């Protein structure tokens, strides 16, 4: 059974770059979509972007200029970089697996999430 | 961007009652691209329904989804105490967006 685990710094300074990694265990990353989703404290879910195992990406237009998602299937992980962060980027960040085709691209399963706080 | 509007914001019902949650989209899309998630406090969301009406693995049959076009519904036929949670709809037919969530409280 596939499991996902986010890792990275829990505190990032304003204007710096947030970098997170999602480690995938229990299954191959091949032929799936992989996503990042975030949730500010006490608020709803916001999709950040996804990457296909081949490396093609799709980002939330509101974040596109600051986001890069990459994948390394040989190491069974994918990563998120978000540049020029502000307090508004404080959130729990989740990584999820999507489908093998876009029509199946619902998020299942999810990692447990990692809280990233942007503060000096 | 497709905006998903969920209503009501909060639903307070007793065990055994029926809960009806609405998700309305700003433009039409195929029901194939509509999913529902349940999130309990301090936990990651969990997939409940995909393709608007198919239950995910392990989801009790008291949860059901329906709808098409711009109007979708999640129904919990007989509420259990453990159904207390926030429920989100999601579409990925036009980019990918989530609704704002409906909080279900059990009296």
Topology readout:
The complex is a heterodimer of chains A (120) and B (107).
Chain A: E1 3-7, E2 11-12, E3 18-25, E4 33-39, E5 46-52, E6 57-59, E7 67-72, E8 77-82, E9 91-97, E10 114-118
Parallel strand pairs in A: 2-10
Antiparallel strand pairs in A: 1-3, 3-8, 4-5, 4-9, 5-6, 7-8, 9-10
Chain B: E1 4-7, E2 10-13, E3 19-29, E4 34-39, E5 46-50, E6 54-55, E7 63-76, E8 85-91, E9 97-98, E10 102-106
Parallel strand pairs in B: 2-10
Antiparallel strand pairs in B: 1-3, 3-7, 4-5, 4-8, 5-6, 8-9, 8-10
Could you characterize the architecture of this molecule?
With 120 residues, chain A is an all-beta fold. In chain A, 0% of the residues lie in helices and 47% in strands. Chain A has no helices and ten strands. Chain A has strands at residues 3-7, 11-12, 18-25, 33-39, 46-52, 57-59, 67-72, 77-82, 91-97, 114-118. In chain A, strands 2-10-9-4-5-6 form a six-stranded mixed beta sheet, with no helix packed on it. A four-stranded antiparallel beta sheet of chain A has the order 1-3-8-7, with no helix packed on it. Chain A is globular. The mean pLDDT of chain A is 96. Chain B has 107 residues and is an all-beta fold. In chain B, strands 2, 4, 5, 6, 8, 9 and 10 form a seven-stranded mixed beta sheet that branches. Chain B has a three-stranded antiparallel beta sheet with strand order 1-3-7, with no helix packed on it. The radius of gyration of chain B is 13 Å and the shape is globular. The termini of chain B are far apart. The model of chain B has no long low-confidence stretch (mean pLDDT 96). Chain A binds chain B through residues 35, 44-47, 50, 58, 60-61, 94, 102-113, and chain B through 1, 32-33, 35, 37, 44-47, 50, 56, 88, 90, 92, 95-101.
């Amino acid at each position: 059974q596939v499991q996902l685990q986010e890792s990275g710094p829990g505190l990032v300074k304003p204007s710096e770059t947030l970098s997170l990694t999602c480690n995938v265990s229990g299954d191959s990353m091949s032929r799936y979509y992989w996503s990042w989703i975030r949730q500010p404290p006490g608020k709803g879910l916001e999709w950040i972007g996804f990457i296909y195992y081949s490396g093609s990406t799709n980002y939330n237009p509101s974040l596109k200029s600051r986001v890069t998602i990459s994948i390394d299937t040989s190491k069974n992980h994918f990563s998120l970089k978000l540049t020029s962060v502000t307090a508004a980027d404080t959130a729990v960040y989740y990584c999820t697996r999507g489908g093998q085709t876009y029509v199946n691209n619902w998020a299942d399963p999810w990692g447990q999430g990692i809280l990233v706080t942007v503060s000096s | 961007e497709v905006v998903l509007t969920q209503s009501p914001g909060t639903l307070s019902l007793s065990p055994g009652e029926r809960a009806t949650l609405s998700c309305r989209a700003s433009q039409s899309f195929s029901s194939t691209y509509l999913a529902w998630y349940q999130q309990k406090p301090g936990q990651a969301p969990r997939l409940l329904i995909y393709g608007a009406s198919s239950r995910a693995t392990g989801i009790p049959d008291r949860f059901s989804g329906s709808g098409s076009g711009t109007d979708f519904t999640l129904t919990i036929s007989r509420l259990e105490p453990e159904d207390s949670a926030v429920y989100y709809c999601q579409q990925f037919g036009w980019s990918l967006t989530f609704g704002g969530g409906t909080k279900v409280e059990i009296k």
